[in-house]
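Quick one:
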Amino acid sequence: MEDWPSLAFESFGLVTKVRCESPETFAGVGEALPPGAHVRPSGEASATVTVDRFGAIAVDEEALVGPRLSVASAEYVLAQLEMVLRRHVARHAPEHIFIHAGVVGADGVGVVIPGGSMSGKSTLVSALVRRGATYYSDEYAVVDPGGLIHPYPKPLTPRSARDPHRPIEPVHVSASRRASAPIRPGLIVLTRYERGASWSPKRLSAGAAALALLENVVSDRSGPARAVGVVRALVGCAEVVSGARGDAELAAREIVGLLRASAA
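Output:
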C-alpha cells in the first residue's frame, strides 16, 4: 500500500490521508473531500483511509466498506469514499461538534433544523433558501466551542416525496446564497414531515431542547461532555420550537414569520 498514490487534506482541524490502489479512483479523490477541506502536503495525519481496486475502504485498517466481486467503477467507489470521509471528519474533528441538521441564515441569525436522514430537513432547507435564506448545510450543523455554526455547504440534495430513499437533482444555490462566515443560532426548529400535518409549533424548555439536539450529535471518542457544552451554548442563545410539518413551503413561510416576530 505504501506505493499507492496518496493525498492529504485538512478539514476542521483534522488531517487525514487517502491512498488509492486505482489511479482512476485517485484522480477523483479531490471531488470526494468534505466541504471546506484543504489539500495539504503529505506529512503527519491522524488517520489513513485506503481504497483498493475492488472498492473496499478502510480507515487505519478498520474495514468500513466491503469489496465488490469485480473491479468497482470509480464513480461507485468515490461515492462511498465521500460518505466515509464526511463521517470520519464528523466523528473526529478535534474542536467542532457535528450535529445532524440543516442550517440556513436568515435575518442575521442561524436557523437550525435537527434531524436524521429522510426527516425532511433538506426539503425544508431548500424552501427556506428559495425564500432568501443563506445556505449553510443540509447535512450537519458544525458548531465550535463558542456556539457558532460554520458553513458546511455540501450540494443541497432533497429527496423525492414519492421515494424518500432516492435523492433528486441537487438544488442550485447561487454564490450569493452560500454562507462564507460562522453564524450564531437564533432559532432551532425540531420538526419532521408528516403528510397532511398543519404547522403549529410549540416552544420547548431549554432542557427538552438540549436532549433533542443531543440525540442528533455525531458520536465521537471523547464522550458526551464536549457535546453537552456545545449544545448548551446553542440552546442558550436561541428560541426553540417543535412540531410536525406538512408542506415545506408553508412551513418555511411560518419560520420566516417567527424570526421577524422575534426581532420586532
